[in-house]
UniProtKB/TrEMBL annotation:
Brix domain sequence ranges: 141-347
Source taxon at top rank: Eukaryota
Name under which the protein is recorded: Brix domain-containing protein
PANTHER family the record matches: RIBOSOME PRODUCTION FACTOR 1, U3 SMALL NUCLEOLAR RIBONUCLEOPROTEIN PROTEIN IMP4
Ranges annotated as biased composition (Basic and acidic residues): 33-61, 81-91, 298-319
Natural source organism: Populus trichocarpa
Biased composition regions of type Basic residues, renumbered to the chain: 62-80
Region listing for Disordered, in residue ranges: 1-102, 298-321
Amino acid sequence: MGIKRKKSESEAMEDYDDDVVVDRKEKKKMKKMEKEKEKEKEKEKKKEILPSMIKNKEKRSAVHAKLKQQKKVEKRKKLKARDAEEKRALELGEEPPPRKIPRTIENTREFDETVCKPDDELFAGNDADEFSSVLKRDRIPKILITTSRFNSTRGPAFISELLEVIPNAHYYKRGTYDLKKIVEYAKKQDFTSLIVVHTNRREPDGLLIIGLPDGPTAHFKLSRLVLRKDIKSHGNPTSHEPELVLTNFTTCLGHRIGRLIQSLFPQEPNFRGRRVVTFHNQRDYIFFRHHRYIFETKESKQSDSKGKNRKDGKGEKNTQQKVIARLQECGPRFTLKLRSLQHETFDTKGGEYEWVHKPEMDTSRRRFFL
């Protein structure tokens, strides 16, 4: 019987090094195999016939529908897998995996130095701007609304609904008066703002908002106007003072426009009326909506993990009460796009402009000014 000789330390180290080299080679082979598989998949994708390559209309539509259905099925599988992972993590008492944030034009916007921060000096200067007297409640907002010289049939209907939206607003016929004379008259009558509705081809297409007595003057393009009568299952507004919601006015210019809009409304809303007026800025388009809301309690049946309804000891079904909010649109509905912002009151010849929109400024879809 021969005695087995124990391996020396140097031999053991050599064996270990050989194993490491083998592992590295295997990993390299695996990586190569994965790369080859990816290349094959890419080739298969390229070989796939796209609907745009098919000339026959019926076959093209059939292939398109099939691809759409496949994408839907894949999306559902991913959602189910994600929900299962979250449920498993909650059962084990662990943190669920973080959800991916989708890339949008808003969250990939170009860097802008004028975006306001909470500790910005701009907020300190709010006490001395043109809107401070109204926003500090030293003056009650009083709005004069008029039209352009050539009015249309749809313009008065829009103005009548604006009068219901903005409290303490008064309509005066334009006639043949010059706009500068109207501004002087509004100053004498202690109006805080002047709104001019411009019409073109029997359709309102512009809004001019002038802060009184010292400006500024903002010119907006008005589009996608829908009056109350054209809104399905609309509601009628009450005379209560509305709540005002302003969203996404983040830059210095947007902050200034937001304060101009804010100065049109009283600063003490009546919450019993449950009225909300919203100015939502998205990609420099300001969407206007007018709603009434109500809170309701809704009973929902509790179910276990298997989807069966739970029952207590007496055999009665357990119910859980949820508070839900219901909205009813009152109208009108329209979209604003800022064209220019001018210092002081309206003056086309000698006025100084803070900001003017030009076509050369639209260099990128991810560049916003408000």
